[in-house]
Write a structure and sequence with these properties.
Elements: H1 4-10, H2 16-26, H3 33-47, H4 53-59, H5 71-80, H6 86-97, E1 106-107, E2 117-122, E3 126-134, E4 137-144, E5 153-155, E6 159-160, E7 166-172, E8 175-181, E9 188-194
Antiparallel strand pairs: 1-6, 2-3, 2-9, 3-4, 4-5, 5-7, 7-8
Helix pairs in contact: 3-4, 5-6
C-alpha cells in the first residue's frame, strides 16, 4: 500500500483544485486502479479524447510517477472538469485560494480552522450549519429541510456554489449510512463562514 504522505506529494502533479473538481465530476474520490480505468472511459465519452488509465494512476498517486504530465493531458483534464483549458483552471484556483473566504463561490476546506462553522444553503429550501472537525469531516449542527440530521458526522471534499452537495460518508448514531448526494436540483446556492 502507498504511504499516504508520499501519495499526497505525488498528487501535487495536478493542482488539488483540479483533482477535486475531476472527482466531483466523476462522482467519487479516485483512489484505486479501477477508478482510473473508469475515469479514462468517462473522459473519452465526455471529451472525445484519450487519457490512459496508466496516466491517471500516475496523476492521482496510485503508481509512482517520475515525469510531469504533458500540457495536452492537463488541458483534457481541465476540460473534463468544466474549464476551457488548464490555464483557466489554474487562474480560478489562484483567485479562489487567495480569497480568504471573501469569495463565497467556494470554501477551501483545507484552509478551515478547527471548529469553524459553515452555512450551506441548497435548492429548493434546505440549510445546513456544519462545524469543521478535521480531515474533511463536519458535524451537522442544524439541518433544515434536509435528509441529513443534527449530529450527523459527514465527510465533504468540496463546497462550491452551483455544484451539488456531496457527502462521501454520513455517520449517524454509530451507523455508516454511505454516500449522500443532493439531486440535480439540489445545487448549493449559498456558502458562508459564520463568525
Amino acid at each position: 500500500m502507498l504511504n499516504i504522505n508520499f501519495r499526497k506529494n505525488i498528487t501535487k502533479m495536478i493542482p488539488e483544485f483540479l483533482k477535486n473538481r475531476i472527482e466531483l465530476k466523476y462522482g467519487k474520490p479516485i483512489r484505486y486502479a479501477k477508478d482510473c480505468e473508469e475515469l479514462s472511459v468517462s473522459i473519452k465519452k465526455q471529451c472525445n479524447a484519450n487519457v490512459s488509465a496508466t496516466t491517471l494512476k500516475r496523476l492521482f498517486g496510485i503508481i509512482v510517477a517520475e515525469n510531469k504530465p504533458r500540457l495536452y493531458t492537463l488541458d483534457i483534464l481541465a476540460v473534463y472538469a468544466g474549464f476551457d483549458c488548464f490555464k483557466s483552471a489554474i487562474n480560478k484556483e489562484n483567485i479562489e485560494e487567495n480569497s480568504c473566504f471573501e469569495n463565497t463561490q467556494q470554501i477551501i476546506i483545507k484552509n478551515l480552522l478547527d471548529k469553524q462553522v459553515i452555512k450551506v444553503k441548497y435548492h429548493p429550501d434546505s440549510t445546513l450549519l456544519l462545524k469543521y472537525c478535521n480531515n474533511s469531516e463536519f458535524l451537522v449542527l442544524e439541518a433544515i429541510n434536509s435528509k441529513l440530521s443534527k449530529s450527523d458526522l459527514v465527510t465533504i471534499l468540496r463546497l462550491e456554489h452551483s455544484f451539488p452537495l456531496v457527502c462521501e460518508n454520513v455517520h449517524r448514531n454509530g451507523y455508516d449510512l454511505g454516500k449522500y448526494v443532493t439531486d440535480k436540483n439540489g445545487q448549493i446556492i449559498h456558502l458562508s463562514v459564520e463568525s
